[in-house]
Amino acid sequence: MQDSRPVILLDAIQVHRDAGLGCGSDDPAPMTAVSDLRVPAAAVAAFIAELRDARGSSPHTLRAYATELARLVAWLPTGAPDLTDIALLDASTLRAYVADRAAGAFPIPAGTSGKKHAAAVGLAPASTARLVACLRAFCRYCARTGLRAGDPSALLRGPRQRRKLPHWLEPDEISALLAAPQGDDEAALRDRALLETLYSTGMRVGELVAVDDADLDPAAGTCLIRGKGRKERLGLLGGPALAALAAYRIRRDAVHGAGTSDRGSFLSVRARHPGGRRLTDRDVRRILLRHLVACGLSLKTTPHTLRHSFATHLVQAGADIRSVQELLGHASLSTTAIYTHLSLDALREVYRKAHPRA
Fold first, then answer.
1. Residues 326, 341: contact at Cβ < 8 Å?
2. Residue 212 in 3-state DSSP?
C-alpha cells in the first residue's frame, strides 16, 4: 500500500506557502521530502495540515502556528543539535527555546517574520504566552498521534501577565470615523459600509472579510458571522449600517455585476481586479488607517479597536455582560469581563443607587 504521508506533508507545505512563509532556501529542507513523521519538520508539517483539514483553523491561526513552529525547527540545529526525532523533544528543550526567544538570543530566520533578513527580537510577555500556547498545542498533537510518549509541555508555563485595558474610541470619535468616508463613489460607499458594519456588529476583522452576500439579511437586520473554531453567531446590524450596506451594494453591483451569493460582500475597487476581489485583513487595516488620518484620530487604532469600542459602549449603557459575551462570540465570560473595568463611573452610579450603605 502506498504511503500517503508524503502527500499529507506536501499539502502542509502548501499551507506553509499560503501562510506567507515561503518555501525558499530559508525553509527547513526536510519539509520538502520527508516521509518519517517523527522528524521534527515533518511533525510540524503534519500538525499544520491537521489544523487546516480537520479543525478548519482560520488562515490567521495557520499562519501564526506555521510561522512559530518553523522558527522552532530552525532553532533545533543549534539549540538542540542531537534532537532529530520528535520523541526526544522534552520539557528542558522547550524551556530553553522559549528562554532564547523571549530574550532575543535566537535570530528569527529570514522569511519567517515577513522580513528578508534574520533578526534577533525579544518577546513581550503577551507574545511569550502565545508562543507557549502554540508549543502546547503542537506537543499535545504529538502525544495524541503517538509521535512521542506523553506531553512534554504539560509543565511549561508562560509569563504572568497584567491584563491591559483595551484601547477604545469615545462615541464622538466613533461618529467622526464613521463620517470620514466622503462621496458617493464605490470606494467611499464601501468604506462607510465596512466601518459601520465593524462597529454595529463588533465582529473581528477576519470575520468581516469572510462575510458573503448570503450572510446578510437586511430584513432581519442580521449578519451571519463565522467565528473562531467554526462557531457561528448572528451579528446585529443597526439602521445606519443597513443603509450604508444597501447603498454600497447598489454601486458595487453596478460596477462588478451581481455576482453569486457566496461572493465576498466587501470587494477591492482596484482596476486590476475588474471582477472584484474579496478584501483581506490587510486591506481593511489600510482603509481604516486612511480614514484615521483624515479625521485626526490616533493611528494606534486598529479594526479590533472598533470591536473594543462596541463592547465598551454597550457595557457603559447598561448591557449585561452575558449579552455582550454572546454578541462578541466569546467562549468564556472571563474574556468579556474585562469590559466591566472600562465603565467604573457607570458601575459606581449603579452601586450608589442600589446599595443601601453606599
1. no
2. strand
Q: Who contacts 141 (Cβ-Cβ below 8 Å, separation ≥6)?
A: 47, 50, 147
Phi-psi region of 297 (alpha: psi -120 to 50; beta: other; left: phi over 0): beta
Predicted local confidence at residue 144, as pLDDT = 93
How many Cβ atoms sit within 10 Å of the Cβ of residue 34? Answer: 20
Residue 217's beta-bridge partner residues? Answer: 222
Query: Is 282 considered catalytic here?
Result: no
- Residue 308 burial by Cβ neighbours in a 10 Å radius (0-12, 13-18, 19+): buried
Assigned CATH topology for domain 171-354: hpI Integrase; Chain A (1.10.443)
Catalytic one of 228, 233, 277, 285: 228
Catalytic choice (226, 307, 308, 313): 307
Local confidence band at 336 (pLDDT 50, 70, 90 cut-offs): confident
Query: Is residue 115 flagged as an active site residue?
Result: no
Rounded average pLDDT over 9-16: 43
Q: Closest Cα to residue 174, out of 316, 281, 327?
A: 316
Q: Is 307 a catalytic residue?
A: yes
pLDDT digits (tens, 9 = 90+) for 253-307: 998 887 766 678 999 988 666 667 899 999 999 999 999 999 999 999 999 999 9
Any idea where the domains of the chain sit in the sequence? 5-144, 171-354
Give the helix/strand (H/E) hosting 224. Answer: strand 222-226
CA distances, 210 to each of 139, 223, 250, 333 (Å): 30, 11, 20, 25
Task: Indicate which residue of 204, 226, 252, 291 is catalytic.
Answer: 204
Options 65, 141, 248, 339, the catalytic residue: 339
Distance of CA 252 to the CA centre of its chain: 27
198/154 Cα distance (integer angstroms)? 38
330 is catalytic: yes
Asked about 353 being catalytic, the answer comes back as: no
Secondary structure letter of residue 167 according to DSSP:
P
Distance of CA 295 to CAs 178, 180, 288, Å? 10, 6, 11
- For residue 228, indicate whether it is catalytic: yes
Catalytic choice (17, 277, 278, 304) = 304
